[in-house]
Write a structure and sequence with these properties.
It comes from Actinomadura napierensis. The protein has 116 residues and is of the alpha+beta class. It contains two helices and five strands; from the N terminus they run E-E-H-E-E-E-H.
C-alpha cells in the first residue's frame, strides 16, 4: 500500500519501529510515508475516533476500531473524501525495477546470494 498523500511505496523495513504511520482516512486504511509525516500536519488528514478523538484507528472487516479506547463503528464506503486518496495501485510510474527489488528482498529474507 502506498502513501496516501504522495504515492511513495514502502521499501524493505529495517529492524525497529517503522517510520511509516498507519491511520484511517475516509473510512479506509492508509499509510503516511516519513516524508509526508515531516512535511505536513498529517494528523489533521486522518479520521478521529468519535468517542475519544484519537487518530489511532484501524479499519478491518468493514469496521473502524480505535486502538486507544476500543470504540468500534461500521465503515462508510461512500465518503466523498475518498476521491483524494492515492489508489493502492499508484506509486512511481516506472515499476521496471520492482521485480528486481522483490527478488533482492526475497534473497535477503531467504539468505540466498544475489538474485539473477
Amino acid at each position: 500500500m502506498p502513501c496516501f498523500r504522495c504515492g511513495a511505496r514502502q521499501t524493505d523495513p529495517v529492524r525497529g519501529a517503522s517510520p511509516w504511520k498507519r491511520g484511517v482516512r475516509a473510512d479506509r486504511q492508509v499509510l503516511i510515508c516519513p516524508g509526508c509525516r515531516s512535511a505536513h500536519d498529517w494528523a489533521d488528514d486522518l479520521d478521529r475516533c468519535a468517542a475519544c478523538g484519537s487518530t489511532a484507528l484501524v479499519c478491518r472487516l468493514g469496521e473502524i476500531e480505535c486502538r486507544d479506547c476500543g470504540h468500534t463503528r461500521e465503515a462508510v464506503r461512500d465518503d466523498p473524501r475518498s476521491a483524494d486518496l492515492v489508489p493502492s495501485s499508484a506509486g512511481p510510474r516506472d515499476d521496471r525495477g520492482l521485480s528486481e527489488e522483490v527478488a533482492a528482498a526475497l534473497s535477503r529474507v531467504l539468505r540466498r546470494g544475489p538474485a539473477g
